Amino acid sequence: MAESIRAANIEAKNADGRAVNPLLPCMCRVIRITEETPDVKTFRIQTPDGAKPFDPMPGQLAMLSVMGVGEAMFSVTAKDDDWIESSIKKVGQLTEALHSLSEGDLIGVRGPYGNHFPVEDIKGKDLLFVGGGIGLAPVRSLIRYALEHREDYGSLDVLYGSRSYGDLVFKSDIFENWPSRCNVHITIDNAEDGWDGHVGFVPTYLEEKAFSPENKAVVLCGPPIMIKFCLASLMKMGFSKENVITTLEMRMKCGVGKCGRCNIGSKYVCLDGPVFTMSELDDLPDEK
Amino acid sequence: MELKKDKLTEALLLLRGASNVILPVSNDGAPVFKLWDGVAEPCLSANTSLPPKDLLFPRSEKMYDYNVKTGNISEISSNKKQTVFGIRPCDVRSIENLDHAFLESGYTDSYYKTRRDGLTTIALACTETARTCFCDSMGLSPNDAPGADIVLNDRGDAYTVKSNTEKGEEITRLWKSLLSKETGKASKASGSVVCDFKARADKDLPEKLVARFDDPMWDKLSKACLGCGCCSFICPTCYCFDIGRENHGASGTAFRCWDSCMFSDYSRMAGGHDPRPSKKERLRNRYLHKLAYFNLRYGVTLCVGCGRCVDKCPANLDVTRAMDIISEGVRADG
């Protein structure tokens, strides 16, 4: 049996380095809401005194709450000097409440939680980002990081698809901001009027592009079925599971490895994840 | 040192002067932990039907008040001193388990820590075992409680008093005038209790359990489960919780409360996906968490052999049966 995976003691600290209660949110203001698709909005969040609530690494998580409704974990899709952003799809009660917020409203925020994309380990490598639907949200934090630290990484390719043009998120990034700075490949599932780009599913497009596995790390995020087929495609193309990185979602209440909900085997997604390589996932029981 | 039984009330009253005293009293004949009123007779004949975990991890606990209009959030914390008297070795061990989960690895839980710092434990070693006890199979002794601040052993007309910690020393100082030298003529043998039952919980159990993740035995073992969550609530080591809110207009209170991994909506996500969709996956996760995953993470088993779940399960599910099946490598119907 593997040796005991005792996590080092993590002290939750505020900006002054003072230990704080990790379950206590701070009230923050939603300063900008961007409607990405009919059911996805991006929320830009700032503390009332104009700072970012915390400084997350790419891939880390934030627990957001609408007081009186509930609390849930979301990936932080972007950060700047004085804000963080999360992109949220309307799927349940809490996300419904988040979607009905207006700019200026207050929400509870705590974090950052979880591990992050292995920005150090993938230094010097070419990066291929593969996203489907809202799955681009966590990946975007790493794309932005790689663009900010451009000299640390080789070529950057973003391959992203969704059901329709209307369901593509971060349109200003994928059509305006990124194409001049990295290779962006966009596809939609079915042809539609006004779309002259690629049509087809993400895994098929991935194979058509025939990316070389040579010195390349893949960050793969999207619906489970897309991940399954993309992984098969990547294996066919000669990638190894150690070099394919993904993020997991699981129901969470605490975010600090106590409430018990988000375990897969002996790992807690909130603490040991959400970022795993595909080979790490192979070692975990099939309860994802 | 020993404390004569006729001095017990006096000793408890001294404790009550310094902190809240919680001890087992009879509730229709069944011992339950209650805040002692200074009068009630301690009921020490058997272990309590409910564990003492809510002294540290209340079934419902207020976390913070909030106001959406003002943006104000104020933490609620409880720092009362509590002394629990008559806690059994298994339940003392369960507190050590909870310490691992809440304090020692990963993040420190502020709510738990405040209560834990304020808690003193006076354990009573067992003089007999119940039908469902299996503590010694889980690697602890009914005769001692090394994790307690004080351990009492029943010697007939007196208790021997052993202090393990600084908190324990404080109590022996408090009791100074009541304690006497051990007379050595014990009328009732204690310190030699042996559990009749032996679950075959060998040290390889975690590996064996993980290796049988896909075994059809989980279907059989979980067949009778009602998903009522009773096992989790009466378990001294189960610590899963939910966080909820009580809302009154713009303000309200966030609280956390016990939860159970046996409930059908426990891990169901918004949108409907559930990684543990049936009772088979839920029971398997509960047993594996207790007997394998917790070991992997913290180096100890999350079951103390108190036997409450074996005694109280309305469907007669028995964790020791699962341990037997796995340790012996037999099939569930074998």
Any overview of this molecule?
- The complex is a heterodimer of chains A (288) and B (334).
- Chain A starts with 25 loop residues before the first strand and ends in a 6-residue tail after the last helix.
- The longest helix of chain A is centred in the middle third of the chain and has 13 residues, at 136-148.
- By secondary structure, chain A is α/β, with parallel strands linked by helices.
- Chain A is globular and about 50 Å long.
- Chain A has helices at 93-99, 136-148, 171-177, 202-209, 224-236, 278-282, and strands spanning 26-37, 40-46, 61-66, 70-75, 78-79, 84-89, 106-113, 126-132, 156-162, 183-188, 198-199, 216-221, 244-247, 263-264, 267-268, 275-277.
- Chain B folds into 2 domains: 2-180, no CATH class; 205-328, no CATH class.
- Chain B contains 10 helices and 12 strands.
- Chain B has helices spanning 8-18, 89-104, 110-117, 166-174, 205-211, 217-222, 230-234, 279-298, 308-312, 319-328, and strands at 2-4, 20-27, 30-35, 60-67, 72-75, 82-87, 119-124, 150-154, 158-163, 179-180, 241-248, 251-258.
- The model of chain B has no long low-confidence stretch (mean pLDDT 89).
Summarize the structure.
The complex is a heterodimer of chains A (288) and B (334). Chain A is of the alpha/beta class and 288 residues long.
Largest sheet strand order of chain B: 3-2-6-7-8-9-1-10
Radius of gyration of chain A: 19 Å
Major sheet characteristics of chain A:
7 strands, antiparallel
The SSE string of chain A, one letter per element, is: EEEEEEHEEHEHEEHEHEEEEH
Shape of chain B: globular
- Helix/strand structural class of chain B: alpha+beta
Report the sheet-strand fraction of chain B. Answer: 15-25%
The main sheet of chain A orders its strands as: 4-3-7-1-2-6-5
Distance between the termini of chain A: 22 Å
Number of strands of chain B: 12
